[in-house]
């Protein structure tokens, strides 16, 4: 059954900050794969085993999760993390050959994919929180902000990478709220945005409608794509 959960040429939301991306050329990427214990995740880790890349924004349990040792397969999966997070992963049984160390500002190639680590304004137990810009084989760019508050240099991320898609937290309490995320769109200027990190727990903003309204008001040129967990957007 392996691989069937990666829908071809799609960005699939697995709930919270977890995404499964499948490129036109068939490469598969998981970002913040918190699957076990994620109340809105529609799949189990075994169904997603063996992606080409796994990107982790920080070591909080709702991002690092506990599934990465299960998801990694042979030599074929590369996990891109800061060295401090790599140490945590190695303790849980992930091998050196499956890890690429990187840090904020850096870009690594994983096959034909390019992974750039960006800053985030948040906290972490090990290392520092980050976001990622993923550049696909065809040049399309996807920005996963990680957990973050609003910061003005999001403007530079938009200027440098001309984002096709931004994945932004809107849930407040631990990250940007709907208003800040709508303002973030004016800095990042992506073609499309998928809101994330809301509705998972009772403390978070429960739904995306407030963000949709504010995004239309602040950044009318950005297409807002609201997914249900398990739903996907064609690349
Ligand atoms: Ni966090
Ligand atoms: Mn979080």
Report on this model:
The chain has 235 residues and is of the alpha/beta class. It has a single domain (10-222), classed as 4-Layer Sandwich (Metallo-beta-lactamase, Chain A). Helix content is 20%, strand content 25%. A 7-stranded mixed beta sheet has the order 6-5-4-3-2-1-14. Helix 4 packs across helix 5 (178-188) and helix 5 packs parallel to helix 6 (209-218). The longest helix is centred in the C-terminal third of the chain and has 11 residues, at 178-188. The radius of gyration is 16 Å and the shape is globular. Bound molecules: nickel (II) ion and manganese (II) ion.
What is the strand and helix layout of this fold?
Layout: E1 10-13, E2 19-22, E3 28-31, E4 53-55, H1 61-64, H2 68-71, E5 78-81, H3 83-91, E6 99-101, E7 107-110, E8 113-119, E9 130-135, E10 141-144, H4 154-161, E11 165-169, H5 178-188, E12 192-196, H6 209-218, E13 223-224, E14 232-234
Parallel strand pairs: 3-4, 4-5, 5-6, 10-11, 11-12, 12-13
Antiparallel strand pairs: 1-2, 1-14, 2-3, 7-8, 8-9, 9-10
State the helix count: 6
Going by CATH, the architecture would be: 4-Layer Sandwich
Which overall shape is indicated by the principal axes computed on the Cα atoms?
Answer: globular
Head-to-tail CA distance between termini: 23 Å
Per CATH, the superfamily is Ribonuclease Z/Hydroxyacylglutathione hydrolase-like
**Mean pLDDT over the full residue set:** 96
Q: How many domains is the backbone divided into?
A: 1
Q: Strand portion, in percent? A: 15-25%
Biggest beta-sheet profile: 7 strands, mixed
Strand order of the largest sheet: 6-5-4-3-2-1-14
Low-confidence stretches: none
Structural class: alpha/beta
Q: What's the CATH C level?
A: Alpha Beta
**CATH fold call:** Metallo-beta-lactamase, Chain A
């Amino acid at each position: 059954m392996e691989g069937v959960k990666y829908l071809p040429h799609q960005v699939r939301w697995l709930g919270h900050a977890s995404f499964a991306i499948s490129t036109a050329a068939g490469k598969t990427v998981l970002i913040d794969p918190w699957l076990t214990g994620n109340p809105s995740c529609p799949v189990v880790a075994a169904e997603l085993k063996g992606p080409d890349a796994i990107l982790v924004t920080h070591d909080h349990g709702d991002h690092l999760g506990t599934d990465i040792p299960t998801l990694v397969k042979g030599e074929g999966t590369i996990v891109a993390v800061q060295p401090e997070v790599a140490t945590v992963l190695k303790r849980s049984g992930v091998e050196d050959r499956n890890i690429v160390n990187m840090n904020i500002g850096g870009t690594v190639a994983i096959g034909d994919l390019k992974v750039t680590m960006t800053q985030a304004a948040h906290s972490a137990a090990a290392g520092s929180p980050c976001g990622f810009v993923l550049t696909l084989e065809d040049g399309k760019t996807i920005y996963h902000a990680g957990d973050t508050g609003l910061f003005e240099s999001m403007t530079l991320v938009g200027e440098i990478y001309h984002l096709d898609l931004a994945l932004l937290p809107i849930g407040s309490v631990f990250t940007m709220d709907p208003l800040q995320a709508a303002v973030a769109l004016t800095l990042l200027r992506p073609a499309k945005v998928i809101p994330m990190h809301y509705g998972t727990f009772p403390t978070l903003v429960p739904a995306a409608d407030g963000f949709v309204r504010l995004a239309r008001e602040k950044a009318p040129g950005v297409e807002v794509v609201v997914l249900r967990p398990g739903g996907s957007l064609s690349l």
